[in-house]
Every structure is written in C-alpha cells, then in structure tokens.
Specification:
313 residues, alpha/beta, Rossmann fold, seven-stranded mixed beta sheet, five-stranded parallel beta sheet, 8 helices, globular
C-alpha cells in the first residue's frame, strides 16, 4: 500500500478555500505551488517541491474566469514534465458541462473539448461531482470518478421534519436526480415543466403533480441565475404548497441570482462549497463537500473502491 508521503495535494488559486479543507480532512498539508503572472497576463505555475514518482492531486473547480481552467492545465503539464508518478485532477465543479451537445447548428460541444484538453495536459485520472449530464463521463478516455452530493444533502435532510415533504424537479431534465431523493425517503415526486424564451429566461412553468399542503424540496445540480428556481417556487406555492426549499449542488449564482433568491418564496437554499459564494444570504446554507473529496482521494491513493462513498439504503 502507498504511504502518505507519496501524496502531493495542490490547489488552484480560486479553489484554495476548499482545497485547504480537503487537505485538513485528509490529514496532509497542501504542497507548494507558485503562480507567476507576467505583465501581459500569461500564467506560469511553478511547483516548488519534487513530485517525481508521487501521486499528485490537483484540486481546482473550473468556474469562470477561464483562467481557472488554464491554470489547472498548466499545473498538470508542469507535474507531468517533472515526472509525477500518477496525476489526478480533482474538479469539484466541472465548468462548461452544460455545453454537452449540439442543440443548434454551428456550436461547439465545449464539455468534450474541456475533457480532451485535460487529458492532453497529462491527467491520468479525473474526479468530479454531480456533472450536469452523466453522459459527460464518456467524453473522457481516462478513469473518471463521478461523486454525488446525495450523501451530503440526505444526511442533512434526515435532521428535518419530512413528514409532509414532496420532492420536485424544477425541470424535466432533472427528474432522475429528484426521483433519487424521493425514492430514498419514500416520498412523492412532482415535476415542473418549463418553457424557455431564451437561455437563462423562463417563459412559464407548469407544475405536474399534487403539492397542496406539502413542504416541497426542489432538487437540481446547479443554480445559475436562479430564475427557474424562483418561477418554479412561485408556481408551486400558487398550487397550495405550505413551503418551498431547494437543493442545488453547485452555486454558480450569476447575474441577478441573489436578488431572485431573496425575492422568491424559497425558505432555504442548500448548496455545497464547490464554488465560493460571491455574497452572503440568510436563505443560503452551505454544506461542505470537503470530507467526501478527502475520502475519495484517500480511496484512490489506497486502491480502494469509490463505490463505498455512495449512499446506500
């Protein structure tokens, strides 16, 4: 079995807050990497310690700006050229995941391009959580560990009164995710069918299912402008629901997201810390994914099953 001395944990600049918590749970300190910025904006990561033959883990979510992805690619390349033994890229939030297909003529499949770039840089393995679409795993030709946030959120939900709870998907695409929660707690599932005017703009939402007198918990993989969540919550309350809460793994929260959340009937929005919040909100509660990633990193290093980390009932 490998020893802890074989492991090197590195962090991207904008994921330092999460990487430090992961390293703390792992029981190991983050290794030293320096990022030099030239006057024209070019980046040059410098790994300030030997990684020869080591199991190297780079922890960095690839949320905007694009510099986060470029920094990750350059760090991986630096480690590869320094004879790292095995490189795992840990991406709690995989950016560009929503561009996973051609939904109109002459557009890129950006998620596939990001996957190929990570492989080309020299990654031997990828670890991420709650991809926007499970099929993105097929874009990678290296092993990919796809963690889920269910264990994090379900552990928290067990502390709440769920006697009158109904789970909901804010759109048709998220039905599988919401059904998983409904099945675990043996509750009903309702679906919000949305019609979009354009990207990030929802025209109307129709609630399919009975919610009168119920405490509704919406489930989604990410929250961006929160426009869909707000309209879905309003539609659910109009049908007689007692309360609305939401679970979203990745708090992208762009544009007027915070205003939408504050002005919505949503009582509480539960998110993880895959992306740092831009501002605080009394309605948003953060549940850390650091322990889950620390355990996954240890299992990868010790050749143990990742499946053991998935919630079982």
């Amino acid at each position: 079995m490998n020893t802890a001395a074989d492991v090197k944990l590195f962090s991207g600049r904008n994921s330092q807050y999460l990487a430090e918590k992961i390293a703390d749970y792992y029981g190991y300190s983050l290794s030293d990497v320096e990022l030099k910025i030239f006057s024209d904006g070019e980046m040059q990561p410098i790994i300030n310690e030997s990684v020869r033959g080591n199991y190297v883990f780079f922890i960095s979510s690839t949320f905007p700006p694009a510099d986060n992805m470029m920094e990750l690619l350059l760090m991986v390349d630096a480690a590869k050229r320094a004879s790292a033994g095995y490189i795992t890229v840990v991406i709690p939030y995989f950016g560009y995941a929503r561009q996973d297909r051609k939904d109109k003529p002459r557009v890129p499949i950006s998620a596939k391009l990001m996957a190929k770039m990570i492989e080309a840089a020299g990654a031997d393995r990828v670890m991420t959580m709650d991809l926007h679409a499970d099929q993105i795993q097929g874009f990678f030709d290296v092993p990919l560990d796809h963690l889920t946030s269910e264990a994090i959120f379900i552990s928290h939900l067990k502390k709440l009164d769920l006697s009158q709870t109904v789970f909901a998907s804010p759109d048709v695409g998220g039905v599988k995710r919401a059904r998983s929660y409904a099945k675990y707690f043996e509750k009903r599932l309702v679906i919000c069918d949305k019609e979009r005017q354009q990207a990030n703009v929802v025209k109307k939402i129709v609630v399919i299912g009975e919610v009168e007198g119920c405490d509704v918990i919406m489930v989604d993989d990410l929250v961006d402008t929160a426009g869909t969540l707000k309209k879905a919550a309003e539609a659910i309350m109009e049908k007689g629901a007692k309360s609305v809460r939401a679970i979203c793994t990745h708090p992208v929260l762009s544009g007027n997201a915070y205003e939408n959340i504050e002005s919505s009937p949503i009582q509480k929005l539960y998110v993880t810390d895959t992306i740092p919040l831009k501002q605080n909100s009394k309605k948003i509660e953060i549940l850390s994914c650091s322990k889950l990633f620390a355990r996954a990193i240890r299992n990868v290093h010790e050749y143990k099953s990742i499946a053991a980390l998935f919630l079982q009932k």
